[in-house]
Amino acid sequence: MPLFFGTGWTQNKVIKISGVDRYETAAKISEYKYRKGGMVLIASGETPFDAISSGPLVIQEKGIILLVKENEIPKTIEKELERVSPDKLVLVGGENTISKKTENELRKYGSIVRLDGKDRYETSKKIKEYKENINKNSNKVGVASGNNYVDALVSAPFLGSEGSLILTAENIIEENISYVFGGEKSIVGYTGANRFAGIDRYETSIKVAEEITKNQKNMPIIIASGEAYPDALSASTISSDTKYPIVLVKKNEIPASVEMYIRSHKPTKVYIIGGENSISEKCIGQINKLIEKGEASRSNITIGVSGSNNTQTNRDENEKVIFGDERVKAEVKKAFLDKVNLIDISKVIKKEDIVNFEPTIKAMRNLRKLDVSNIFDDNFDAYYPKTIKGIEEAVNLESLHMTGLRSADINRISKLTKLRELNISRNEIDNADFVNKLTNLEKLIVTNNKLKNLDFIKNNKKIKVLTATSNNLDDINGVSELANLEELRLNDNKIDDVTPIKNLKKLIKIDLSGNQIKSIDNIGEKPELEELYLTGDYVGPFEEPQMTGNCIENIKPLAEMKKLKILYLQDLRLISDLKPLSGLKSLQQLTVRNNKISDVTPLSNLTNLKWLHLYKNNISDISSLSNLTELIEFNFAVNRIENIDVVRNMKKLATLMGYENKITDISPIMDLDTLENSLSVPDDLGSDMESIGMVNLTRNKIVDHSPISSIFSKDFHGRYSFVMERAKAELENISYEENGNSSIISVENPLKGPDGSVITEIFMEEKEINEDEVNEIKDFYSYANGIIGKQKEDNIQIEAIGNVIKITIPKEKVKDGRLNVMIPYEKIYYTEDFERDPFSGVLEMNINITN
């Protein structure tokens, strides 16, 4: 049997089943079950959604699940099909996921039934109907979100032969539902149904597991990845004749809810499904400890109810804390469940009592870390408590995050004198005098409030990090005696005088961007400074420059800051002399965007530079920069440069931007947006440049692209850079017609994905921006939304219909037979591990219309 045991594992307790990929893993699970005949359910190993509702059918039929590719049956699957010799095969999904060719090849292994609908939702109903036709007692129906595969997968052992699962889309309520899998955020409504929901997918899997095992103590369990779809789907094979629950874990961590369940349930056996890429050896080691020894898996956890110093002995430690707001209390209770506090708390509180746990004086005194931020009401609207009463009992807190509450009595935290870290951002605070009592503070964040000065911080001599961005600060004298300060972020305020920081010699990082600073002559010696940000107000291409914001001309005080690694002097508008920077040889990032610079020779010996932005100056010659061979990103756009031979030495370049110059020859580059240039392409371009990913030649009349064909074929998708796709100045196959006051222009769609297929997924509406997304994605969506919003204002409609892009535009917008449109697009692909891999960018099209 294909059992794999790690060092020290007991064979009858932990069984790991895995293969080299998802297909072999599915085959190994089937081989472990070692059944012949019966039903085999065939699902796509490439498309994650069609088969996620099929688990109950597999369990009812005591079947197995095997995975195939759209146009191929992997060898390991062929071998297992031959061994099993199934009575019938049930294919789940349409021909776009399992092709007709693959179906025909599968026929040699048994009779075939295909269950498919127009989408995952209809497919789930087809599976339900098929299951009910086989078993009339299968009359209970569960529902899960079609956008969250894990909630659907863990439902299978519970529903089993007695029920089916259907998937639902947002805002659609299905009828006659008995069970709901997932929280209100993923699937709303169904007040009369039994809901299995936790705070995340991992706890939801535990809610289902607890129901399955409530009368079967020590029942074996199946552990699968909550991050990799195929393994959890294949896990239903193990559960098909046992109904063992499927419990989800992270790749490198056992969530607290799962750990508690394993410790209390004490399963006699654990099946771990998937290889190292799904569940790491580190995680398996933690599971093994829990099974073998019952030990906590997090050895670094020291915070809990027991063993703390209690300096207030005049009160009953078991007295319950009275909170002034129930929602604040609920947030505090979560602290006793997080991974920092859980293990020690569990020594004195039984797991079944945690939900009903009432914080006591003793429990509160033992908290060291607390986050009470961004509270929401039942409608998921922001909730602002009138009081935070009760928080002050956590007298031994060392870290407190309390953002977005706006409570009138936030000064209660002045009693928490052991605090070393405090974040009270977004609370509309205009008076923070209570902070001066917190003399142990080392880190303070008061971003997005209404503070006008920093006088409240004069007594906090231990502070090393201060962030007070986006307030109304025009007076920073309060920091002048904070001799231990290492990081100071005061960007986006109204500061015009830097004298208060003159004597702060330990500063490593300073951000004074977005203020009203005209001079840095009094900034003082900064021997340890590594990062300095002085960015002014950005002026767009169509805006008149205003002398507001930071406007600095003299940068001589920077000359002695020899440890500087990052320096932002962009949008200061007045800098013309870079000589003070010539000796800053530690610099790695430098931007002097939007100034009056013409001579870059002083930068010639800054050989550690990796990132250099010279955008929008008066530069005509960059030949002196030939020594900057470590550059990874180089932006010299919007200047008067003709010759860029210097970049031939910059073999590490990943991004180079040089649009709006006078360039006549391009060299080894990755990401070039050469707007309004006249270019010739060297025959050897890209021949030996391994770092090249893409060359962009927007607005040029290139006839022969063969010298760069290999570059275009390399992988550049999945990056949220503002890529301008190649577009000819005069596109062919243009049709033009008029309809009333509108012009309708149709052009051949030049958008191609990494697989060569035409992309039709262009943005028709503004994209909702999820705050949890990475900054690159949020920046791209914000940029794209700006384009869409402007086009809506101009009554421009753009559609991608197959191979044609159709543009409907008011006739007056087509000036002199020329049209320029910007088209954001995003197509989602999936990696081998079914992670989202977006292919996105902005297509700029310049169209000439001739009558």
General description of the model:
This protein is α/β, with parallel strands linked by helices and 851 residues long. Among the domains are: 14-292, no CATH class; 602-716, Alpha-Beta Horseshoe (Leucine-rich repeat, LRR (right-handed beta-alpha superhelix)); 735-848, no CATH class. 17% of the residues lie in helices and 17% in strands. The chain has 17 helices and 31 strands. The strands form 6 sheets. A 13-stranded parallel sheet has the order 13-14-15-16-17-18-19-20-21-22-23-24-25, with no helix packed on it. A 4-stranded parallel sheet has the order 1-12-10-11. Strands 3-2-4-5 form a 4-stranded parallel sheet. Helix 8 packs parallel to helix 11 (256-265). 41% of the residues are buried. Mean pLDDT is 78; it is low at 1-11, 294-314, 339-354, 539-545 and 667-732.
Keywords:
single chain, 31 strands, alpha/beta, 17% helix, Leucine-rich repeat, LRR (right-handed beta-alpha superhelix)
Q: Largest sheet, order of strands side by side?
A: 13-14-15-16-17-18-19-20-21-22-23-24-25
Terminus-to-terminus distance: 75 Å
Mean pLDDT: 78
Supply Rg. Answer: 32 Å
Supply the helix-strand structural class: alpha/beta
Strands, total number: 31
Shape: globular
